[in-house]
Amino acid sequence: MVGIPNVGRALDRVVATAQNGLEVIRMGGLDTGTRPTAFRVEETAPMYRLRRYFPDDLNGGPPVLLIPPMMVSANVYDVTPHNGAVSILHGQGIDPWVVDFGSPDQEAGGMERTLADHIVAIDQIIDLMHEETGRDVHLVGYSQGGMFAYQAAAYRRSQQIASLTTFGSPVDVLAALPLGLPANIMAPLAEVFADNVFNRLNIPGWLARTGFQLLDPVKAARSRIDFLRQLHDRDALLPREDQRRFLEADGWVAWSGPAIAELLRQFVVHNRMVSGGFVIRDHLVTLAEITCPVLAFVGGADDIGQPAAVRGIKRAAPRAEVYETMLPVGHFGLVVGSVSGAQSWPTTARWIQWHEGNGDMPEAIAPMAETPQQNTGSGVSLASRVTHGIGAVADAGAGVSREMVAAAGSFRRTSQAVLRESVRTLPRLMRLGQIQPGTRISLGKLMSENAERAGRRELFLFEDRVLSHTEVNTRIDNVVRGLIQCGVRPGEHVGVMMETRPSALVAIAALSRLGAVVVPLPPSSDLATMLRLADVLVVVADPVSLDECVPHAERVLVLGGGDARAIPQADGDKVIDMEQIDPDRVEVPSWYRSDPGLASDLAFILFTGADGALQKWPISNHRWAMSAFGAASAASLTDNDTVYCLTPLHHASGLLTTLGATVVGGSRIALSSGIGPESFAREVYRYGITVVSYTWTMMRDIVRDTDLAITDHNPIRLFIGSGMPAGLWDDVVERFPDAGVIEFYATADGAAILANISGGKVGSVGRPLPETNRVRVAAWDVVEERFLLDPRGFVREAHVDEVGLLLAQTRQRNETGATVLRDVFGRHDRWETSGQLVRRDVDGDHWLVAGVHSVIKSAEGPVYPQPIITALSRHPDVDQVVVYPVGIPGSQLAVAVVSPRRTTHALTVSSLRVALAGLSAAERPHIVWAVDDIPVSHSYRPLPGSFRAQGLPKPSARVWYRDDTGRYRRLTRTVLAEKEWEMASADTVAPNAARTS
To answer: Which residues neighbour 327 within 8 Å (Cβ) at sequence distance 6 or greater?
Structure first.
């Protein structure tokens, strides 16, 4: 009857609800009648149990290892028998294996597991599977299990790995954090949690489950409400019951604190899945060494492994063929549920069979795009959420809000970047500005502070080995004890002749910590002169440099040299092998104080060839700190950076800029045993190099190598150094379009420190760094070599674009350095001379033109070498350039020597003239001489010495002279006779011409 409720049906629903509810309470869920797929444990180890499914029905197919995330049960691949991964793969001819890490809280030592333990376990399993099956292994991983697959493949360098398949596995984590969280906030927060929370706290399984549900609380609540509303209808619930029980209870395991901390530190804070250089058991690893094919499943509505983060594999693994498949599901739906059963696992099976040669490429996959789609907000579009069914008003509103926040964020991006740089830079500049003569500051002290702050984090990367801050600091202290045992005392001048290796940096830091004066020594025939000028009796040397030092030093202390070393010359007196000294048996004297150096104390002595003679340049701790803090701020160095320290430490750029800035920034220091295209390409990826140091033409053979194995997807963001020719600078920017170049210039004693921070004006040395000495350009008579005065009798400041002498204002009266002038531009001012002529453009940027004594004084007026070098170096066929004078001052000739690039057949005079078109005729070289090669120094500076010794080049088809119209013509003997240039030879070279070697 209409209007009368069906009491019987209602009663049936109540009874059914009560019965099903009681079953859920008692059993944890409804009995679906399904049972787990049969498997056999093939291997048991402390870290894992290795399952092989369908042991009674082995199909001889390609072996596949399925890897679960740390916090999810291995049963994720067998949630439902009909749609589970192992069943579908087996049904399509695949041999499925699953690694079961168990629940750490139920395993002996499980809560002490690290991230590396999991990678090493997978590495061992691959060996076992390969031995058992005789075939390469296909790796498959879900979420963090996919990250494990990537890391294990990189760790093995793809050996015995047939392919990789991942599901929602983020690589470029900071590109799109879960739920669209801002990276600039979450990365520092992750570091705090890694260092202060998860080093003592683990995550139990229930908390992992709760955290997963809180990522989408609306969906979790709606799912539970739907379950309760249908609790009377058992038939409607059973198809999804196994999946519900897995998510609600059975699918979660504990997560060890050390593993979480390592995950956060390496792959969130430093994002080293993309940059490379992450550490597995003291081995440096990079995804760039993955060469096997990769298939990445991307969830269109995945708020955990977001599309932008997942697609980071394309950039991180440039040598691999990378494919993708997009599915309209969330994170869990990629591997469990109807979509995964219909699409994910069948596609995976076809992908594996394709690479086994048993089929065509699956239609559902496509090569991953070179330039991934730009993500906004959370990285998951609103349309994807709606398509996925998350269209509830509350959730849709949240999604719209996130997209609106992201849109607003794009307008704030610039200001946020400025704010981040300010937060990072201002404390350094404040500390630099507070340094007084009595302030304790030194290289050794800064390294000690870093060790106290960074502890077990990596510091030195060398030959695939890793040394932490703590290990390096301990080594420094041990070397200090060895120096004390050898009689070295504070204030003593000690030479250091070592290759740029960890032991060299340790030796310099140890001498600084002891309070001695470090004298870095280059390999040179003038070694005896250097030791005499610097008042050095004791030299610390590595075994390679020992023979060169013994004839000139009173004592040689041998340090480093690797594991295989023998020092037969060691007699315990003149030659002492410091590696044989037991630091624990050295009695530390009462006078020893760690890091006693004050800002005003002499810290280093370098050498320069100014004025045609070898001169020493003393550098105080304050001057070193100015360079170090200023360069670190200019390069924005942080502990996220890995700096490739290629510059020799006896060069000012290596000691003041590269080493100093790296220590101030707390960055990792990567060292190389050689400089070449092959090692450069390998180590950039393996170490995760973000900043490359250089001097002069060091990058020449690397960036101009047509076979350089570096793609546009590389971690390098910056090149820092000094002396790079403009043409090479152009090539670096072209070869590494995403990287910048910061060219530093510092006077030999560090009084003036300038940097071209913007990199926009190629060839300029820029402006003074903040909190460093102020500079001014004094008007200068280049012929008479004297200042030009104003009507008051003070030195006149040079006009815009007028060549003048660079001066640096001194702030501390007891600084040791170059000549200090007083009352220069006004009363009571104090300025140091740099010996360098520059011009300042209208924007305030400085351009080097020549040393005071290297101006070529021709009959037509002064000729400046640097503008000639800059112009010719930018010629597309010119490799290197040097300029030198011939003749006596007043009638000197400027000779420019050029060498062609290897890919060039010949240089033409017309193209050289075009390269010099930006200079007036009087500013151009009188003679251009093409040679096969130009030698370079140990710091890669082109050397003109051998050409200067010849004077004028002999007439040939490769020598041209500038005629009266400014055009270049072939130099012949007739021309020499007409111009009376025969007498202009090396014997008449001006005695005050600057040495450029």
So the answer is: 297, 298, 299, 300, 333, 334, 339, 343, 344
Beta strand ranges found along 506-596 (DSSP E) = 517-520, 538-541, 555-558, 575-577
Q: Are 770 and 629 in contact (CB under 8 A)?
A: no
pLDDT in tens, 247-295: 565 667 777 878 888 888 888 888 889 988 899 988 899 999 999 999 9
Tokens for 875?
């010629």
Among 888, 975, 894, 901, smallest CA distance to 929 is for: 894
Cβ-contact 687, 283 below 8 angstroms: no
* 561 dihedral zone (left: phi>0; alpha: psi -120 to 50; beta): left
**Half-sphere exposure at residue 489, Cβ-oriented, CA atoms within 13 angstroms:** 4
For residue 686, which of 936, 494, 431, 463 has the smallest C-alpha distance? 463
Q: pLDDT tens digits, residue range 66-83?
A: 999 988 888 889 887 677
Q: Which long-range contacts (CB under 8 A, 24 or more apart) does 881-884 make?
A: 881/725, 881/934, 881/942, 882/934, 882/942, 882/943, 882/944, 882/947, 882/996, 883/856, 883/925, 883/944, 884/944, 884/947, 884/948, 884/989, 884/993, 884/996
User: How many CB atoms neighbour CB 328 within 10 A?
Assistant: 15
pTM passes above 0.85: no
| Longest CA–CA separation in the chain, Å | 130
Quote the crossing angle between the two packed helices 234-245 and 7-27, to the nearest 10°. 20
Distance between CA atoms of 346 and 790, rounded to whole angstroms?
86
| pLDDT band at residue 978 using 50, 70 and 90 as cut-offs | confident
Q: Which residues touch 774 (CB under 8 Å, ≥6 apart)?
A: 768, 808, 809
Give one word for 674, left, alpha or beta, with left for phi > 0 and alpha for psi -120 to 50. Answer: beta
Residue type, position 364, single letter = A
Work out the angle at residue 285's Cα, subtended by the Cα atoms of residues 284 and 287, and round it to the nearest 5 degrees. Answer: 160
pLDDT tens, residue by residue, 311-335: 999 999 999 999 999 999 988 889 9
Q: What angle do CA 279, 469, 685 make, to 5 degrees?
A: 35
CA distance 735 to 751: 34
- Tell me how far apart the alpha carbons of residues 85 and 340 are, in angstroms, rounded to a whole number: 8
In which element (H, E) is residue 15 found? helix 7-27
The C-alpha atoms of residue 495 and residue 746 are separated, in whole angstroms, by 22
Give dist(CA 482, CA 677) in Å, integer.
Answer: 38
Torsional class of 795: left (φ above 0), alpha (ψ -120 to 50), beta (otherwise): beta
* 320 Cβ contact list (under 8 Å, min separation 6): 164, 290, 291, 292, 293, 294, 313
d(CA 853, CA 394): 76
Distances (CA, A) of 885 to 869, 878, 982, 988, 991: 14, 21, 15, 10, 11
398: part of which helix (H) or strand (E)? helix 393-433
- Cα 347 to Cα 98: distance, rounded to the nearest angstrom: 19
3-state SS string over 600-620? CCEEEEEEECHHHCCEEEEEE
Q: Which helix (H) or strand (E) holds 977?
A: helix 973-979
What own/partner pairs with CB < 8 Å and gap ≥ 24 does 702-705 have? 702/675, 702/676, 702/677, 703/728, 703/731, 703/732, 703/735, 703/736, 704/731, 704/879, 704/901, 704/902, 704/903, 705/677
CB 618 within 8 A of CB 749: yes
CB atoms within 10 A of CB 138: 30
In angstroms and rounded to an integer, the radius of gyration of the C-alpha atoms of the chain is 34
Of the CA atoms within 13 Å of residue 147, those in its CB half-sphere come to: 26
